[in-house]
Design a protein that fits this description.
By secondary structure, the protein is α/β, with parallel strands linked by helices. The chain folds into four domains: 291 residues, Rossmann fold, CATH 3.40.50; 158 residues, 3-Layer(aba) Sandwich (Rossmann fold); 67 residues, Dna Ligase, domain 1 (2-Layer Sandwich); 111 residues, ATP-grasp fold, B domain (D-amino Acid Aminotransferase, Chain A, domain 1). The strands form six sheets. It has a seven-stranded mixed beta sheet, sandwiched between helices. Strands 15, 16, 17, 18, 19 and 20 form a six-stranded parallel beta sheet that branches. Strand 6, helix 4 and strand 7 form a beta-alpha-beta unit. Helix 10 packs across helix 16. The two termini are 41 Å apart. The relative contact order is 0.08. GO terms for molecular function: acetate-CoA ligase (ADP-forming) activity; ATP binding.
Length: 680
C-alpha cells in the first residue's frame, strides 16, 4: 500500500484552518472526528492556538506534536501554498485541500494550483484536491471532511462495508453515499478528489482495490482518464463501475477521416471500459445498482439468464430488458421445462420467463421446487426473481427460497421487487441480510445483472502481434498506400496508375472490360464528393474518363470493378487514450447510419469478432433478405491485420479505409487514405 492509504488509515489528523465558530467549515472535521469516535490524535491548527472543541490547538503543523499522517487544509486559496510548505516541512505525506479558488476559477486559479502542486511534489507530499469535500474511512472513523452528511441530527452508521466510492465531485460523491446508506448499503470508504491536481480519482480507486476488505469500486469522473490507470484498475481483480459525465459533448479532435468523426472521445471511453471489463453507469441509480450487485461474492460464468416470476407482466418486461442489455434469455433444457410443467399450474408458464403465478401465495413450495429445477439447469448462469406487491410474510418465504438456491448453486440471484415499501417495510433489510441485491423494477435488476456479467466475463491476457511496419509518410498517394496495405496482407483491387488514355484502355481490358477510374491528387481525400471517381467505365469510354480525371492535375488510377458486397469503413485514429480501431457500416453513408464500434489498440484475441457482432446492421453480413452471406471470417482477419499494421506507428495519424467491401468470398479495401495531424 502507498501513502494514499493514509486517507483512511491515518492515526493522526491535522485540521489546518480549524475553528470553533458555529457553521464554519473548519469546525466540521474536528466535530465529526470527535462525534464519531475517531481513536487517533486530533490536531486543530489555528494561528491563535488555544483550544477547539476541547482539543489543544496549534499555530501551525510545525508546532504540533508529530508524526502527523494526514492534513486537512481548509483555509483561503491564497494561504494554501504556505500551508503546503508547512506540511512538507513537518514531514506529512498526504494532505487534502478542501479550499476552492483554483483551476475551477480560471487562469489565475490554475496558475496557483500548478504552483501549489509543484511545491508539494518537490517536498514529497501528495495532494488530494483542491476544491473537494474530503475523505472518510468508515473502518477507522477517519472523518477528514466537512460534508453535511455527517452533521444531520441522526448519526450515520459507520459500520464499514466493502464498497469504495470515489468521486471528483464532493457533493455528488457524498450524496451518492447517502443514497446508498439509505438503501442499506455499507460503504467502507468515500473519497472525493476535486480538481485531481495531483492525486487522481483513478489513483485512489486503484489504491482501494488493494484493500483486502474491498468488494467493489464505484467512481464518478469528470475528465478523460489515463488509459494506463484504467488498465491497472481493470486488472486489480475488483469489480468497478464508473459514472463519467460529458456524454453530450462532441469531444475528440477534428479528424480528416470519417472514422475520427465517429469515434469521439466519449465513444472511445465507452469502448475502453467495455474492453477492460469496467461497467459504465448512466446515472447515480445505475452506479449504486451496480454496487449492490458487487456486494455478492457470486459471479456468473456466462450471460445466460433465467427469469422466475409471480407476475407475467414483470417477466415479459425483464425478458425485453435481457435482450436490450446484451444478455441471453436461455431457453432452458427440455428436461427443465418438463420438470417445471409438473410443478407450475397449467395457467402458468414453464418456458423462460418462468411464471409460477400468484398460486405461490397459497402454496409456497411451488417457488422452492421451481427454483431448485431452474438452478440445476446448466444453461442458466444467473437467476432474476420478479415479484409485485408482496407483503412481509410472502417476502420472507421468497427470500428463504432464493437465498437457499443461491447458496446451493453458487449462481448470482437478483431480485426485482415492484411494490411500495409500506407493503413490506422489512423486505429490503431481509433481502440484504440474505445477500440478495434488491431492485424496484425489472429493468434495473437486469441492468445490474448485465453489470455483474461485464465485470465477470473473461478477458484475453495477450495482445495480437504487430507487423513491425514503420509509420508511412503523410504524402503517400492512394496507389502507394494500397501497395503498403497489400504488403501487409490486405486485399486491394487489381489495377495500376496510367499515364495515357491508351494505357487506361489497356488496363480496363485486363481487368475484365469494366473498371473504376480515380484521380490521384495529393491531399484529395474525399474524391467522390468532387466527381474524381468514375465507376463502371467500359473500354470504349476509357479515353474520355482518363481525360476528365486528368484535368484534376494528377495521375489516374484504373482498378478492377469489385462485385457486390456489404460496404464498411475501417479506420484508426489516435486519441487521448491511445490508438483506436473503428469499424462502421455504410461506406460513404457511415456518418448517416451512425452504426459503428471501436476498440483501443492493441487488440486481444476475440476483439475483432466482438466488434463485428456489435454492429446493429450485422444482419446485412449474415445475408439479409435473400442476399448471400458475406465472408465474416475474412472481415475479422482484415480488422486484425489493420491492427497489426499500425501497431508500430507513431501517434497523431489517421488511417481511413473507406469503403471496405465484404464479399461472398473475401474482403477488399476499395479506397484508402492516411493523414498525419499537423502540430498546433
Amino acid at each position: 500500500m502507498s501513502e494514499l492509504s493514509l486517507l483512511w488509515n491515518a492515526e493522526s489528523v491535522a485540521v489546518i484552518g480549524a475553528t470553533e465558530r458555529e457553521g464554519a467549515l473548519g469546525r466540521k472535521p474536528v466535530a465529526y472526528l470527535q462525534r464519531y469516535g475517531y481513536a487517533g490524535r486530533i490536531l486543530p491548527i489555528n494561528p491563535k492556538g488555544g483550544t477547539i472543541l476541547g482539543y489543544q490547538a496549534y499555530p501551525s503543523v510545525l508546532e504540533a506534536p508529530g508524526p502527523i499522517d494526514l492534513a486537512f487544509i481548509v483555509v483561503s486559496a491564497d494561504r494554501v501554498p504556505a500551508a503546503v510548505d508547512d506540511c512538507v516541512a513537518a514531514g506529512i505525506k498526504v494532505a487534502i485541500i478542501a479550499s476552492s479558488g483554483f483551476a475551477e476559477t480560471g487562469d489565475e486559479g490554475a496558475a496557483l494550483q500548478a504552483e501549489t502542486v509543484a511545491r508539494a511534489r518537490a517536498g514529497g507530499l501528495r495532494l488530494v484536491g483542491p476544491n473537494c469535500i474530503g475523505a472518510v474511512g468508515f473502518g477507522n472513523k477517519v472523518m477528514a471532511t466537512f460534508s453535511p452528511l455527517f452533521s444531520a441530527d441522526a448519526v450515520v452508521s459507520l459500520e464499514p462495508g466493502g464498497l469504495g466510492i470515489v468521486s471528483q465531485s464532493g457533493a455528488l460523491g457524498f450524496g451518492a453515499a447517502s443514497l446508498g446508506i439509505e438503501r442499506g448499503m455499507r460503504p467502507g470508504w468515500v473519497i472525493t478528489t476535486g480538481n485531481d491536481a495531483d492525486v487522481s480519482a483513478l489513483e485512489v480507486l486503484a489504491e482501494l482495490a488493494g484493500e483486502p476488505a474491498c468488494t467493489g469500486l464505484l467512481g464518478y469522473l469528470e475528465n478523460v482518464p489515463d488509459v494506463g490507470a484504467l488498465r491497472s484498475l481493470a486488472n486489480s481483480g475488483k469489480p468497478v463501475a464508473l459514472l463519467k459525465s460529458g456524454r453530450s459533448e462532441e469531444g475528440g479532435r477534428a479528424a480528416a477521416s470519417h472514422t475520427g468523426a465517429l469515434a469521439t472521445d466519449d465513444r472511445v471511453l465507452d469502448a475502453a471500459l467495455r474492453q477492460f471489463g469496467i461497467v459504465r453507469a448512466g446515472d447515480i441509480d445505475e452506479l449504486l445498482d451496480a454496487g449492490d450487485a458487487f456486494t455478492s461474492p457470486r459471479r456468473p460464468k456466462g450471460p445466460r439468464v433465467a427469469i422466475v416470476t409471480t407476475s407475467g407482466g414483470s417477466g415479459i418486461l425483464a425478458a425485453d430488458d435481457v435482450v436490450a442489455q446484451g444478455l441471453e434469455l436461455t431457453p432452458l433444457q427440455d428436461g427443465t421445462r418438463a420438470a417445471l410443467a409438473e410443478i407450475i399450474p397449467s395457467f402458468g408458464s414453464a418456458n423462460n420467463p418462468v411464471d409460477i403465478t400468484a398460486a405461490v401465495l397459497s402454496d409456497p413450495s411451488l417457488f422452492d421446487r421451481s427454483l431448485d429445477v431452474i438452478a440445476a439447469d446448466d444453461t442458466v448462469d444467473m437467476i432474476i426473481g420478479c415479484f409485485c406487491v408482496m407483503t412481509d410474510g410472502d417476502v420472507d418465504k421468497a427470500v428463504r427460497a432464493l437465498a437457499k438456491v443461491a447458496e446451493k448453486s453458487g449462481k448470482p440471484v437478483l431480485v426485482s421487487r415492484t411494490g411500495a415499501d409500506f407493503l413490506a417495510p422489512n423486505a429490503r433489510a431481509t433481502l440484504r441480510e440474505a445477500g440478495l441485491p434488491d431492485y424496484p423494477s425489472p429493468a434495473r435488476a437486469v441492468r445490474a445483472a448485465a453489470a455483474l456479467w461485464q465485470v465477470s466475463k473473461p478477458r484475453a491476457a495477450d495482445s495480437l502481434a504487430g507487423l513491425g511496419i514503420a509509420t508511412p509518410p503523410a504524402e503517400l498517394t492512394e496507389p502507394e498506400l494500397k501497395a503498403l496495405l497489400a504488403r501487409a496482407g490486405l486485399s486491394v483491387p487489381v489495377g495500376r496508375v496510367v499515364a495515357t488514355a491508351s494505357e487506361a484502355k489497356a488496363v480496363v481490358d485486363e481487368v475484365g472490360g469494366t473498371a473504376v477510374f480515380k484521380a490521384v491528387v495529393p491531399g484529395l481525400v474525399h474524391k467522390t464528393d468532387v466527381g474524381a471517381v468514375k465507376v463502371g467505365v467500359a473500354s470504349a469510354d476509357a479515353a474520355d474518363a482518363f481525360d476528365e480525371l486528368s484535368a484534376f492535375g494528377g495521375a489516374v488510377l484504373v482498378e478492377e470493378l469489385v462485385g457486390d458486397g456489404v460496404e464498411l469503413i475501417i479506420g484508426v485514429h489516435t486519441s487521448d487514450l491511445g490508438p483506436v480501431l473503428t469499424l462502421g457500416l455504410g461506406g460513404i453513408f457511415t456518418e448517416a447510419l451512425d452504426d459503428a464500434t471501436s476498440r483501443l489498440l492493441p487488440l486481444a484475441p476475440g476483439d475483432a469478432e466482438a466488434m463485428v457482432r456489435e454492429l446493429r446492421g450485422k444482419a446485412l453480413l449474415d445475408g439479409a433478405r435473400g442476399r448471400a452471406a458475406a465472408d465474416v471470417p475474412s472481415l475479422v482477419r482484415t480488422l486484425e491485420t489493420v491492427a497489426a499494421l499500425v501497431s508500430g506507428w507513431e501517434g497523431g495519424f489517421e488511417l481511413d479505409l473507406n469503403p471496405v467491401r465484404v464479399l461472398e468470398s473475401g474482403t477488399k479495401v476499395l479506397d484508402a487514405a492516411h493523414v498525419i495531424a499537423k502540430e498546433a
